Amino acid sequence: MKKFVNTLKLVLAFCAFLPALSFAHGDVTPQKIDITGLKTIKEINPDLPEGEWLTANPYRNNESTTRAVEIGKLAYGQNCAMCHGLEVVSGGIAPDLRRLTHDAEGDEWFTYRVKEGSVRDGRVYMPKMAEKLSQEGLWAIWTYIESVCTEPDRADCVK
């Protein structure tokens, strides 16, 4: 009888956990990103209309890169790692971001995804992060992601 009761407790505990599994993607509260030490988007491009996004990573290969990587690593851990994997090593839940290129195509994909999120069959797989996080913070995350893999052909980055 004791074995039955323990099994029943385990089954009930698992059933209580199931609703949380169905919201594994998207049901998140983005954590604010401290961008202290980074140039703001307005400082980088004063003519950019309010609410518009830069089309290229403003922190790539310049004096802001090191600070952006530091900020991005922390912000990635708080906002992205749960789905995209620690240190950008995907466990298969979400796309492996190390496969993206460090160019206009990669920037375009990144900005589209953080602005639009990902919804399939009415389920949110990734929320619209740009609605909650600053453009500076999101570009810092992208700078960190790019720093994880610096090989030009990308194949050497994904094991």
Notes on the structure:
This protein is mainly alpha-helical. The chain has one domain: Cytochrome c-like domain (Cytochrome Bc1 Complex, Chain D, domain 2, Orthogonal Bundle), CATH 1.10.760.10. Helix content is 45%, strand content 4%. It has six helices and two strands; from the N terminus they run αααααββα. A two-stranded antiparallel ribbon has the order 1-2. Helix 3 crosses helix 6. It is globular, with a radius of gyration of 19 Å.
Summarize the structure.
This protein has 159 residues and is mostly helical. Helices cover 45% and strands 4% of the residues.
Number of strands: 2
Topology as H/E string? HHHHHEEH
Report strand order across the widest sheet.
Answer: 1-2
Summed up, the helix count is: 6
Mean pLDDT: 84
Strand content: under 5%
User: If you compute it from the alpha carbons, what radius of gyration comes out, rounded to the nearest whole angstrom?
Assistant: 19 Å
Distance between the termini: 49 Å
Query: What percent of the residues sit in helical stretches (DSSP H or I)?
Result: 40-55%
Tell me the number of structural domains.
1
